[in-house]
Amino acid sequence: DVERSRGLGDVYKRQHYAFNSGISAGGRIFLMQNEGLIRGGKAFAEKGMRAVEVGSKQATPTDIGITGTAYRQADLKRLELEKMTQKLTSKLALKVKKVEFLQLLEERLETLSEEKQISLSESIKEIEEIEKQLKQIEDQKNKMIENNQRLQRQKSIDVLETLHRGVTITIGDLQYHNPAMIKGAKIYRKGNEIFIESYGKKV
After folding, report:
1. What does the pLDDT read at residue 200?
2. Is residue 119 classed exposed, middle or buried when 0-12, 13-18 and 19+ CB atoms within 10 A define those classes?
3. How confident is the model at residue 14 (pLDDT cuts 50, 70, 90)?
């Protein structure tokens, strides 16, 4: 069966278990009471999920994860800032070479033509402006890192009792195939890696 919960603030709750289900929630998924089991099928949420047990001893193929809307947006913004940085850095290098050449020429000739003096002055101003833009981009990157760290802490998959082998975990564009049973797992993304901790101990 396929069940969908629309809207970023939505919460999906089920009392017992989800067998071979297709669950999609715009908010969080909770299977906490009684068995609290997800076995087979797929369960994806935008903000995270909590369950008692996921998968089975027989390694029943089970997909769980956190959908990647926020991660994709962050990655696109990061790539955009990287492209801007590369473009400005290349431009800066050319301007610096031009200024160094004109200053060297001025030392040798002791003076520059009016045209070259204007060019030198304008190039120095452009360098200052480019450096200012690069600083602003660097500030945006640092802010994004802070926001991403906060996002990653907030979005996690908590399996209170057993995470079985054979469960496929997807967070954003990252995927991990769990090879062994883990008792009590907290799953989250940090940077470009998926981490699984067994009640505070990384495995």
Report:
1. 46
2. middle
3. low
The one-letter code for the residue type at 76 is L
Is the CB of residue 175 less than 8 Å from the CB of residue 169?
Answer: yes
DSSP symbols for 8-50:
TT-EEE-SSEEEEEEEEESSEEEE-STT-EEEEEEEEESSEEE
CA atoms within 13 A on the CB side of 84: 17
Contact 166, 61 (CB under 8 A): yes
Helix ranges, 26-68 (H): none
Cβ atoms within 10 Å of 133's Cβ, excluding its own: 15
In 10 A of CB 96, how many CB atoms? 14
Return d(Cα 14, Cα 108) in angstroms, integer.
Answer: 82
Question: What would the two tokens of residue 170 be?
Answer: 């997807």
| Longest distance between any two alpha carbons in the chain, whole Å | 88
pLDDT digits (tens, 9 = 90+) for 52-108: 999 999 999 999 999 877 777 877 888 999 999 999 999 999 999 999 999 999 999
- How are the residues of the chain apportioned to helix, strand and coil, as percentages rounded to the nearest 5? 40, 35, 25
Cα(154)–Cα(197) distance, rounded to whole angstroms?
Answer: 15
Q: Count, in order, helices (H) and strands (E) of the chain.
A: 2, 13
Phi, psi of 200 (to 5 degrees): 95, -15
